[in-house]
Task: inverse folding
């Protein structure tokens, strides 16, 4: 008789593994049916022990051990993948079941699919390694084509992972020539039927395949997948914002390590952590990495210092207006990237210095135009609260309220005044709610010469073709955010925009002295990396430390007591406890606890055991997006 720890594939608060026994032969990775609270549910075997190994522990249990009802599929996952899942769960202080449910579509879990998995007679083994590419998108696509051809010749399949759905179809189109029958695309926006069909066909096709998908499909158990590519490696979207809180890049790399596959990391500019690992020879370059990007577009920095008759700074400098006018006269297209939504991101009292903030979560209120009425409103970009504009300061009653910075709506207003005869398309989340509508608007913009597209991140995510002129406005406020990743995010964004510009790339700023603008305009990656890595070393940020943040929201007195208790428990690891700068979306106060652990000492079994015991109201983030 064997004792099995089983990860339950059913939604439950903590997704803990449960113990069952079997008199049949069982394997790590078997998909099984087990009794649970009067129902039969599916699970994956993640650990097996003999009865002798667990006899003492079983005697202390106050419940009867239940039997596995049925083995649905033997080795649904191979043992190596199970090891990768368990290692990833340890790293992020999660349960194995949470990882498993995240790498298989729920539709596949719930459907009893009968799959006749393709079992290749033989295929060449690959050298298991992690390599990286730092090239333009066009150059990477060319290299991926060669890599796919090489893999197919060796009877090997390839999986390309992208962080967001909007980029999948474009890459699939670019890579599909000649292999249309062997390419599959999978993501969460497919219908239940489409997900199941894609999963089944990808497993059954008797030929090497190219699968392009989001991390939702990374668990596809096809034995001949020998290469996995993490495309857009520096994208923040590889980190999840809800439980299970993890970084998909770590999970995928762990899978390739355990299953002895090749991993390729590709992007215009790789993360600073990746470049640091490259320097330590933990990973290798695939070809020669580029540390300076030469663009055929002309780059320019315009310092915004012009003022209007009232002495206020202009939104768009007069020199920039001239550049836009010249481009439109030549029937050239222009994309203007705005770093902020709304009219203005901040409103400040000149008398007492109070920033107008949301009464629910404490975030700064941005001024927007009410689309239904001819009036302006305050909008919170964090919790979406909408309130009327206030004429007087809440604290001192003063009436000298000043707006700081500008957003997309203010830029739009100025453009419409300056170019009343020009078609100006607007693409942001306030006006466009779906990816399909965003793509349609981009197509209209690309087909009509002499037009302007004004947009935020949403626009950038849907632009795939070169554009004559690209202008960047409104990034200055983002440089003041107290986030240790802020400069890297802005630098990567500027580099991405620069590489899309065919003729002119222009940044307008009130802070021309910031080195990040010089680095981006000149495509100077090497000096940016040197500065960034040295700053992180001095401040004990990744890759020099692993950060673990535990957050708790609620009534101030209650969460303070609970955090003090947790602080005492974790005292051997010298935690730092501090209040969050903002309340959460429900308007509750938040207290954070931060641990800094040496990378060679993580995962730490003692810390992980303590974190896993915490109630779900504690939010645990390993390598958090922000420490604020």
Result:
């Amino acid at each position: 008789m064997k004792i099995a720890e089983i990860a339950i594939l059913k939604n439950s608060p903590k997704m803990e593994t449960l113990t069952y026994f079997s008199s049949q032969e069982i394997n790590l990775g078997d998909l099984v049916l087990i009794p649970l609270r009067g129902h039969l549910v599916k699970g994956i075997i993640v650990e097996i022990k003999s009865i002798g190994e667990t006899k003492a522990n079983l005697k202390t249990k106050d419940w009867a051990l239940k039997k596995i009802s049925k083995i649905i599929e033997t080795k649904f996952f191979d043992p190596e993948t199970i090891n990768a899942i368990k290692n990833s769960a340890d790293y992020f202080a999660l349960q194995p079941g949470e990882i498993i449910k995240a790498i298989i579509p729920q539709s596949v879990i719930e459907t009893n699919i009968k799959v006749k998995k393709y079992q290749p007679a033989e295929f060449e083994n690959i050298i298991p390694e992690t390599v990286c590419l730092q090239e333009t998108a066009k150059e990477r696509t060319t290299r991926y084509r060669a890599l796919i051809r090489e893999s197919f010749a060796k009877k090997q399949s390839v999986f390309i992972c992208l962080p967001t759905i909007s980029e999948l179809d474009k890459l699939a189109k670019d890579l599909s020539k000649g292999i249309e029958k062997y390419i599959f695309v999978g993501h969460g926006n497919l219908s239940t039927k489409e997900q199941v069909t894609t999963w089944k066909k990808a497993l059954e096709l008797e030929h090497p395949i190219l699968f392009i998908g989001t991390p939702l499909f990374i668990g596809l158990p096809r034995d001949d997948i020998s290469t996995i590519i993490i495309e857009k490696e520096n994208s923040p979207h590889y980190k999840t914002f809800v439980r299970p809180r993890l970084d998909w890049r770590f999970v995928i790399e762990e899978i390739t390590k355990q299953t002895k596959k090749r991993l390729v990391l590709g992007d215009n500019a790789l993360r600073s952590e990746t470049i640091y690992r490259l320097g330590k020879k933990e990973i290798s370059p695939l070809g020669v990495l580029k540390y300076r990007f030469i663009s055929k577009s002309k780059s320019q920095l315009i310092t915004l210092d012009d003022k209007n008759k009232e002495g206020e700074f202009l939104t768009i400098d007069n020199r920039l207006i001239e550049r836009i006018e010249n481009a439109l006269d030549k029937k050239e297209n222009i994309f203007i990237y705005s770093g902020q939504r709304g009219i203005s991101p901040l409103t400040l009292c000149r008398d007492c210095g109070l920033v107008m903030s949301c009464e629910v979560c404490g975030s700064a209120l941005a001024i927007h135009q009410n689309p239904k009425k001819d009036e302006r409103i305050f909008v919170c970009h964090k919790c979406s609260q909408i309130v009327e504009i206030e004429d007087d300061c809440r604290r001192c009653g003063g009436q000298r309220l000043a707006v700081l910075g500008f957003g997309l709506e203010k830029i739009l207003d100025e453009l419409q005044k300056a170019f009343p005869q020009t078609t100006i398309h607007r693409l942001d989340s306030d006006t466009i709610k779906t990816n399909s509508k965003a793509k349609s608007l981009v197509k209209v913009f690309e087909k009509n010469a002499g037009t302007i597209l004004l947009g935020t991140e949403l626009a950038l995510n849907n632009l795939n073709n070169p554009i004559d002129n690209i202008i960047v406005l409104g990034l200055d406020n983002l440089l003041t955010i107290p986030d240790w990743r802020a400069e890297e995010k802005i630098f990567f964004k500027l580099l991405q925009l620069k590489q899309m510009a065919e003729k002119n790339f222009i940044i307008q700023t009130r802070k021309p002295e910031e080195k990040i603008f010089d680095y981006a305009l000149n495509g100077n990656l090497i000096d940016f990396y040197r500065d960034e890595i040295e700053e992180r070393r001095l401040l004990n940020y990744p890759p020099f430390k692993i950060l673990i943040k535990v957050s708790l929201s609620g009534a101030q007195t209650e969460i303070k007591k609970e955090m003090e208790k947790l602080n005492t428990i974790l005292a051997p690891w010298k935690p730092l406890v501090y209040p969050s700068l903002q309340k959460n979306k429900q308007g509750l106060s938040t207290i954070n606890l931060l641990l800094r652990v040496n990378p060679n000492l993580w995962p730490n079994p003692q810390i992980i055991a303590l974190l896993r015991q915490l109630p779900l109201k504690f939010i645990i983030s390993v390598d958090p997006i922000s420490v604020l």
